[in-house]
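The instructor's notes for this session suggest beginning with a concrete chain rather than abstract definitions. Hand out the sequence below and ask the class to guess, before any prediction is shown, which regions might be ordered.
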Amino acid sequence: MPAPPPLPSDAHADLGFVCAVPMELAAFLGRCERQRSYSDRGFTFRGGIYDGVRIVAVESGAGMVKAERAARELIAVHSPKWVLSCGFAGALQPQLAVGDMIAVNQIVDDHAHELQIDLKMEADPARKLHVGRLATVSKIVRTVAEKQQLGARTGALAVDMETFAVAKVCQELQRKFLAFRVISDDLSADLPPEVMSIFGDTGAVRFGAVIGSLWKRPSSVTDLWKLREQAGKAGEHLADFLDGVVKQLYRADH
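After discussion, reveal the predicted structure:
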């Protein structure tokens, strides 16, 4: 079966998504029909039709600088009515578990700058849906102690490395914005120390470091594989949640 033609680089989207890495939205985008993709200016764009809604997602890479550039490209080229920052986050509060969803109503960055989000959604603890503040930081927060300190200082439920930058672009360009994050690592254990060497402070994957880490500590493959499994399950939870969100946002505008 021949591959579908590439996504037109000027195709309009009803909803635009910004994620850091492909795995975050892989499960969601896999449910789209007529899937297409293209690469331009250092970013990969993937799109399709989700229950009649035109979707385009850009993979920014980790960090606020890349996320800002990606958001600007997404808006300039595909002019979505809504932009959503979606992907993984680390829990900062003990009540959050892997797979729990965060609907973000406020974002704070490293410098205590805050952005409010006009979110009309109520928490639903029975369904593992939390509503609250997200911290966006410039470096990976690896240990439980570091997460607890960040949570106490900011009052945030979870932490990521991109959302504040995407929200700021949308505020500047007067674009409708929402952010939803799924917990991929909780406060039950530190992230493997190899995360810092493999991803670096900014989250950029360094493949040579993968081999070096496995050579130094062969058992690290177990820890990293567990982390990948958690991320895969979290991605499925995010896809299930976005199913309802996509339909609601589209209907609200039509």
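Then share the key points. DSSP finds seven helices and ten strands in the chain. The domain at 15-252 is CATH 3.40.50.1580 (Rossmann fold).
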